[in-house]
Amino acid sequence: MSWLDQLAENTEELRRAGRLQQNGRSAEALPILDKVLAVAADPTTRAYALVQRFGALINLGRIAELATAMTIAENAVREIPDPYLRGQMHAFAALGAHLERNLDRGVTHLVQASRALAAVQENDSETAWGWHDLAMAYSYLGFHGHALTAIEQARQVGAAVGLAPEIFAAPGIRLRNAVSLDHQGDTDGCLRVLRDIDAELTRYVAIGADHMRPGSRAAYGYSLARRAALGEDTEANAAEWLTGGGDSVRTRDLQHLGHVCLTMAAGRPGQALSMLDSVPVSAEILGAAEPARLRSICHAAAGDHAAAHAADRYAFRLAAQRIDRLRDGYLDGVAARLDAQETQRDPGRYGDETLTDPLTGLPNRRQLERYVATMLQRGDRAAIGVCDLIGFTEVNARHGRHCGDLVLQRIAGVLNRVMRRGDFVARFAGDEFVVVLPGAGTAQAAEVSRRITAATTAENWQILVPGTPISLAAGWSEVGANGRTLSAALAAAAANRLPTRPLSEMT
């Protein structure tokens, strides 16, 4: 039984919309999904339709609509305890994050999608497509090894339910791996992968495989054309495979760049350069470096080696930017793991789950109150800082609550990293954080405030939440001085908080 068979209504319409999307006809699928959503009342049916509609918008490149569509789909799926539906939604969300150039959010969705799909108990064709879409997301985000593992899982699940292996050929995954190698200077490695793709296509044609997806045509065609641009003959006819393929942005861009490569291979590099200038292509299909790399090949073929060298250096720089972002994400991941280990080693400080904020892992308001009460009982005093996020409301409105959660987690990590040994950080409520600096006076609190401001400013918020700057407003006070209670200190700190306020005195 297919996963769709459990739906209470509109099963055939949703099945038809799914087939259209699989065949690269998302523009036709979209009105069907809209009609289902206009009449369906069953929560699971609506959740599935919303997820598929989100996927159709991604295929069509309608980036301005993605944030709203994802939020609506995510809210619907949250009410349905189904691992396939969660996995499919997160796979699409990772692709959406890639189109919005938000690497951190994309990686988060990749992990969530993989975990959800791995939890599916009864695999069927829908689950196979879920693994396929996750493989695509891995590939676009640059995790080529994970992409190959996920597409193999799609093939195995598909084969178990009778789907032909060529349905999940997914040549685009290896194509992106090939051009990524070329962007990093490994042209021999690129050619090896392109030869494998050519050989695979030849095998499929020889056995008369007739279930190949239309969307695979453009990827096969570009693989052949790219190999020809690098000076090698191909077994199959690239121009033939660059026809058809559906209505996606991906197909359009691959066809255009494929014809650029064929023009180059035909000995007309000047015309190929003009073609590159005439039609802009998405940086998200084959990476921002691909047009620059093609320019380098054109210039080299025309004998302008200085221009070829400059274009190659530019392509390499663009490719390196993604690697730099991955390194930043790796550092953040290590920092988060160390924070979690510290929490586990110091249960007396952080307490059990009832004393911990589940989103950020920081102590919550109850734990803050206990901590300060114990400190006051000892007769100690401390500086108290109240930090509010500026721009958080706009993040939720523009990018959705999921991105808001990511911002809160990032700020929690920032605060943890800049605190002195023995300082205490808590999430007080919403986008409000409280820091306690035991024994600190004005000078020490001013230094911590400066570090908080510098660390917050240094974060790359443009990648995480494009177009919505994030900063902190901080106010300071003292607790324990002149018998001041926590409530009084928090009120005084909140009253004098200002954005990036230079701290000259505490009230």
UniProtKB/TrEMBL annotation:
Molecular functions (GO terms): diguanylate cyclase activity
GO biological process: cell adhesion involved in single-species biofilm formation; negative regulation of bacterial-type flagellum-dependent cell motility
Pfam families referenced in this protein's UniProt entry, alphabetically: GGDEF
Protein name per its UniProtKB record: Diguanylate cyclase (GGDEF)-like protein
CDD domains: GGDEF
GO-annotated cellular components: plasma membrane
Matching InterPro entries: Diguanylate_Cyclase (IPR050469), GGDEF_dom (IPR000160), Nucleotide_cyclase (IPR029787), Rev_trsase/Diguanyl_cyclase (IPR043128), TPR-like_helical_dom_sf (IPR011990)
Highest taxon of source: Bacteria
GGDEF domain ranges (all copies): 380-507
Organism: Paractinoplanes abujensis
